[in-house]
Amino acid sequence: MSGTAHAGGSRAGMRKELPEHFKAYRHVWVFMEYEHGAIHPVSLELLGEGRKLADRLGGELAGVALGGDHGQMIEVANAAFAHGADVTYITAEPVLAHYRNEPYTRAMTELVNTYKPEILLLGATVLGRDLAGSVATTLLTGLTADCTELAIDAERSLAATRPTFGGSLLCTIHTLNVRPQMATVRPRVMSMPKADPQRTGRIVEHRLDLREEDIVTKVLRFLPDRDSNKAQLAYADIVVAGGLGLRSAENFQLVRNLAEVLGGEWGGSRPLVQKGWITADRQIGQTGRTIRPRLYIAAGISGAIQHRVGVEGADLIVAINTDPTAPIFDFAHLGIVADATEFLPILTDTFRKRLSVNRLAG
Amino acid sequence: MSLEVFDAIVIGAGPAGNAAAYTLAKSGLKVLQLERGEYAGSKNVQGAILYADALEKLMPDFREDAPLERHIVEQRMWMMDDNSHTGMHYRSDSFNEEKPNRYTIIRSQFDRWFNRRVREAGAVVLCETTVTELLKDTNGRVIGVKTDRHGDAILADVVILAEGVNGLVGQRAGLRQELQPAHVALAVKEMHFLPEEVIAARFNLKGDEGVVIEAMGTITKGMVGTAFLYTNRESISVGIGCMVQDLAENRVSSSALLEAFKAHPSIRSLLEGSEVREYAAHLIPEGGYKAVPQLYGEGWLVVGDAAHFVNAVHREGSNLAMTSGRIAAETVVWLKRRREACSAENLAEYRRRLEASFVMKDLKKYRGIPALLHRNKHFLDLYPRIASRAAQIWLRVDGVDKRSKEGEIVRDLRAARGWRGLVGDAFKVARAWR
Amino acid sequence: MHIVVCIKQVPDSAQIRVHPVHNTIMRQGVPTIINPYDLFALEEALRLRDRLGGAVTVLTMGPPMAEDSLRKALTFGADRAVLLTDRFFAGSDTLATSYALSMAIQKIGESWGTPDVVFTGKQTIDGDTAQVGPGIARRLGLNQLTYVSAIGAVDLAARTIEVSRRAEGGVQELATRLPALITVLEGTSEIRRGRLADALRAARAEVTVWNAAQAGITEMTKCGLRGSPTVVKNVFAPKGRATKASLLDTREKTPGELAEAMMARIFDALPGIEGDLLAHAAQY
Ligand SMILES: Cc1cc2nc3c(=O)[nH]c(=O)nc-3n(C[C@H](O)[C@H](O)[C@H](O)COP(=O)(O)OP(=O)(O)OC[C@H]3O[C@@H](n4cnc5c(N)ncnc54)[C@H](O)[C@@H]3O)c2cc1C
Ligand SMILES: Cc1cc2nc3c(=O)[nH]c(=O)nc-3n(C[C@H](O)[C@H](O)[C@H](O)COP(=O)(O)OP(=O)(O)OC[C@H]3O[C@@H](n4cnc5c(N)ncnc54)[C@H](O)[C@@H]3O)c2cc1C
Ligand SMILES: Nc1ncnc2c1ncn2[C@@H]1O[C@H](COP(=O)(O)O)[C@@H](O)[C@H]1O
C-alpha cells in the first residue's frame, strides 16, 4: 500500500495552505556524501540540479558536509562551492568519522530543524537511502526515492518524478503541507556540472553534542570492494552481459573474454543466476544491479522489462540476438541479428587486434 | 511421524477438482486438495466461457462475488474462407436476464476465487504441491498419494483425480492409457487488451454485455479444429485449436494458425490497437465418448478433463468438469453416509449417476463426430469456400439474372462434391448428430 | 528469539499495463506475488530461528487478498501470520505505512513477546522506495541495519548482534544491540521449499487479521491518505525510445567485416572511448 497506491490521487488538488511554521523554510540543500576520503560524484551531480531549483525559487543552494575531520570538510565545502553551492553547513565531529545511521540522522535532523531548508536532496546510494529514510521519518515529512526528474511547479512545490512498478511507469510526487521536501536521486541520472574553482561561498559551522559513548552501533571493520573480487557493476564504464541465448555455462566464458579485452565488467540476466552460471552480484536488472555504463553489450538477452530498467541509463546499448523481434532491439541503440556464440569471439578478436595493433604503432 | 488420513484427497484445483472438493467439504468430510500451481488457476488455460448452470447447482449465490467478465448476449458462428466469412448471428435482449446463462471469465481469477470458496467450505488446500504418484496397498487399492514435498505420504479413503487433460498421475498408476494424438486438440490462446469503451463500441455492447464468435473453415487449413474470440471486460481472448494428430501430419504449428487467424480481414479490425499480454497453449481432450477411460476403481475416481469429459461440438468443458466433480463427490458422500467402503464395486454408482446426467448423454450423442470430421476434412475446407462463393454470387448485383445465379451456385456445389458426395455428407452428419 | 518479518504483496511488475487512453494502471488480470526482496528477508529470518530457536511472525499490511501471501510465508516455515487490513490504510505512503506497521509490531510484541529483530526486504518492486524499513526502525527506536548481506554472531543474553552490510565501496561490519531492524540485501539466499508437514500446517493455520483498532491504532490522522505527506499527482508510461536499434545489415558480409563495422559504430557513438580502451590495454 505504500508509495504509489493512491495513483490518480483522490487527494490531489485538495492542497491546503502550508502551515505557518513551515513558511520560514527556504533554500535548497544537497547532502554531500563523503566516505573514505572521497566525495561521491552523485552529490556533485545533485548540486548541478539543485542550482536550477534554487534559481527557480530565488533561493540559495547549500551543501551539507558531515564528517570526522574538519580539514576534510572544508575541502568538501570548497568542492561544493566549485559545483554551484552558495553556502555549506559543516558539522565535523569524531562520531561522524564513519557513516553510521544514528549519529548522521541526529546531525542531519538537527541542521534541518535549525536552518530550515525548503528542499533536501540526497544521492540514492546505499548510504543516502539509509539516511534519508530515517531523517524523513524523524521529521515526519515526505520523501521521494530514486527520482529521475526534479522540477518546481507553479505553486513553488517540488515535483519529483520517479519510476514505479519496476520501471513500467513513471509518477510525479509532491510533498504537501510539510517541509522540507525530500528526494533522492540515483547516481548518473543528473549530469555533472562544470566545476568553477574560482567560486567561493559561505561556511556555517554547526556543533553536534554527541559522544561516542552515546552511540550503540559500532563499526568493526570495513572491507573495501577493491580488495575483493566482487563485481563493480554499478560504476563500470563498460559492461558486457549474457543471457539464456548463450545456451550453456561454458559459452558464458565468451562474455568474460570480451569484457576482459575491453577492460570492463561482466554480468548477466536473472535466469543465469538461477541456473548458477553466474553469482547473484552479477545479476543486472530490477532485482539485480542498476548499471549506467558508457557502453553496454547484451548478448543473448531478450530484454524483458525487469532487465531493461537496470540498463536503460547506459549511453550506448548494443544487442546481439538471433531474434530480430526480441524486445531488446526496442531500446538498444545498435544491434546485430546474429548467433552470440559465433559473433562474440569474432568481435572480441576484432577489438583485441585493434587495441594491440595501435599499441604497437603508438 | 504418523501418517495423516483424510476422507478424500482431490488432485487438482481446476473446475472439476474445485467442484469435487467443495461438495465434499460442504458435506463435512475431511478433504485435502493438492494443486501444483502457485495458486489455483495460475497455470490454467481456457477461452473462457463459464456456463452458469453447472456452477449454480453447487453455489446458487456465486454471482455475488465470482469474478465474472461479461454475460453473453450475442453469438456469432462463422464459416470462414481466406478473406470472408458467412454464418449465423444471434443476439437477444432476453439474455440480459437477472441470472444470465453464460459469462466470459478469466480462469486465473476465477479458479482462485472458486478455490477460496473451497477453503472456506473447510477443505485443506495445498498449492505448489505436485502429486507424484498414487500410493497403493498390496492389493492394488489406492490408499493415498505421494507429493514432491519432503515428507511422508498422505493417506485417504478415496482419491479423486481432477488433474486435467495430461493425467500423468493416473497414467503412471496404470489407471489410464497415454494420451493419443487422435484424441486431443492443441489450442493456443492470446489475451488482447483494449480499453473497455473500445470493446463496447467495436462489438456494440453496453455495460457487462459480451459477444462470442466461434469460427471454423479454411482457417484450420483443412485440419479438424475451431477458432474463437471472446470479449472480456478489458480484453479479448482469441484462440484456435486443432487435433494434435492433424497438426503433426500437416507439420503446421498452432501458433502459425493463430497468427493467420488474427490477420484474417474479418478478425484483424476487431483486435486493432490491442496489446497482447498473454500467450498460452493447452491440450483439450476432444476424443469424445470413445476416448473416455475407466472412471473408477478401488479407492479412486476420475473427473473432468482427466476423464475426457469435453463436448467439442458445443465447446463445453468446464461445465462437464464441474458436474462430474460434483457427482463424484456426491457419490463419495453417499457412500460415507451409508458407512460403505470406496471400493470399485461401490464407486460404480458414480458412472451410473453420470450416465443419467447430460455429461454422458451428450458425449454419447456426438460419439461419431470426431471420427467423422477426421475422415471428412472437406467439411472444414470445401464447404466454407462454397458457402462464401455462393454468397458472393448471390449478393453481387451485376446484371446477371437471379435464375442464372442460382444455377451457378448449384453447379459449384455439384462440381465440388458431386451429388453423391453431397447426399453422403448430409447423411453422415445426420447420423453423427442423431 | 522472536522475529517479525514484514512482507508485502505486490503486483507482478512484468504484467502491469497502462491504459492507452487514460494513462492509468490497468491491474485487471495482473497476478500478485510476494515482493521478491521480502523472500530473502524471510529466508534469513527462518535461518536465524533455526539457529537460535524461537518463532517467526510474518506481518503484512494490505487488502484482504494479501492473506494469500501470508499463507505462502507459512508454507515456507513461518510460525505465525498477521494481516493488517483496514480501509483507513488505503492510500498510505511510506510514512503512513511505517506508522501502521510499527503499531502492529508493537501489538505483536504485546501478544506474543517483544521482537528481538524485525526484518524487511531491501525495497519493494512497486513502491521501490526502501523507506519503510528505516521508517519502522525510527518509530520503534530499533537499531537500524540496512542492506545486510550476512548475519554474524548473535548473543541473546548480552543482546548483541553483528552483521555485514553493503556500504558505499565496500562491506561494513557492524555490531549493535538488540532489538534491531534489518533490511536484507538481495541474493544472499534462496527461499527454501517448505516440507509437507509445514505446508499442511500452513494450509490449516489461522491468519490473524487485525483492523486499525485491533492493532491498537487510535490516531487515524496518521494513517492512509490523511497520514501521507506525499501525493502522487500523475502516473504515466515512460516514453519509449522512438527509434528502434539500428541493425547492422548482415547480408553479403563476413562475420569479420560485421565485427569491424560494429566496432567502428561503437567508436563513432562514444567519442573518446577508443582512447580509453587503448590506455587500458597499455596497462597490460
Ligand atoms: C519480479 C521479477 C524480477 C526480475 N528481475 C530480473 C532482473 O533483475 N534481471 C533480469 O535479467 N531478469 C529479471 N527477471 C526475469 C525477466 O523477466 C526475464 O525472464 C529475464 O530477463 C530473461 O532472461 P534472458 O533474456 O537471459 O532469457 P530469455 O528471455 O530466454 O531470452 C534469451 C534470448 O536469447 C536469444 N537467443 C537465443 N539463442 C541465441 C544465440 N545463439 N545468440 C544470440 N541470441 C540468442 C533469444 O532470441 C532470446 O531473445 C525478473 C522477473 C521477475 C518476475
Ligand atoms: C483454449 C481452450 C479454450 C476452452 N474454452 C472453454 C470454454 O469456453 N468453455 C468451457 O466450458 N470449457 C472450455 N475449455 C475446456 C475447459 O478448460 C476444461 O474442460 C476444464 O478446464 C477442465 O477442468 P479440469 O478441472 O478437469 O482440468 P484443469 O482445468 O486442467 O485443472 C487441472 C488442475 O490439476 C492440476 N494438476 C495437474 N496435475 C497435478 C498433479 N500431479 N498434482 C497436483 N495438481 C495437479 C493442474 O495444475 C490444474 O490446476 C477450453 C479449453 C481450452 C484449452
Ligand atoms: N504494506 C506493507 N506491509 C508489510 N511490509 C511492507 C509493506 N510495505 C513495505 N513493507 C516492507 O518494507 C520494505 C521496503 O518497502 P518500500 O519502502 O516500499 O520499498 C519491503 O521490502 C517490506 O519488507
Q: What topology emerges from the helices and strands here?
A:
The complex is a heterotrimer of chains A (362), B (434) and C (284).
Chain A: E1 28-32, E2 34-35, E3 38-39, H1 41-57, E4 61-67, H2 70-82, E5 87-92, H3 101-115, E6 119-123, H4 126-139, E7 143-147, E8 149-152, E9 158-164, E10 169-175, E11 181-185, E12 202-205, E13 218-224, E14 238-242, H5 253-262, E15 265-268, H6 270-275, E16 295-299, H7 305-311, E17 316-321, H8 328-331, E18 334-337, H9 340-361
Parallel strand pairs in A: 1-4, 1-6, 4-5, 5-12, 6-11, 7-11, 14-15, 14-16, 16-17, 17-18
Antiparallel strand pairs in A: 2-3, 8-9, 9-10
Helix pairs in contact in A: 3-4, 5-9
Chain B: E1 5-11, H1 15-26, E2 31-34, E3 49-51, H2 52-56, E4 68-80, E5 85-91, E6 102-105, H3 107-120, E7 124-126, E8 131-136, E9 142-147, E10 154-161, H4 168-172, E11 184-193, H5 196-203, E12 209-217, E13 225-231, E14 235-243, H6 244-250, H7 254-263, H8 265-271, E15 275-285, E16 296-297, E17 300-302, H9 318-337, H10 344-355, H11 358-365, H12 369-375, H13 382-395, H14 402-433
Parallel strand pairs in B: 1-2, 1-10, 2-7, 4-12, 10-17
Antiparallel strand pairs in B: 3-6, 4-5, 4-6, 8-9, 9-10, 11-14, 11-15, 12-13, 13-14, 16-17
Helix pairs in contact in B: 1-3, 1-9, 9-10, 13-14
Chain C: E1 2-6, E2 9-11, E3 17-18, E4 25-26, E5 32-34, H1 36-52, E6 55-61, H2 67-76, E7 80-84, H3 94-112, E8 117-121, H4 132-140, E9 143-155, E10 160-167, E11 170-177, E12 180-184, H5 196-204, E13 208-210, E14 230-236, E15 246-247, H6 255-269, H7 273-282
Parallel strand pairs in C: 1-6, 1-8, 6-7, 7-13, 8-12, 9-12
Antiparallel strand pairs in C: 2-5, 3-4, 9-10, 10-11
Bound molecules: flavin-adenine dinucleotide (2 copies) and adenosine monophosphate (AMP).
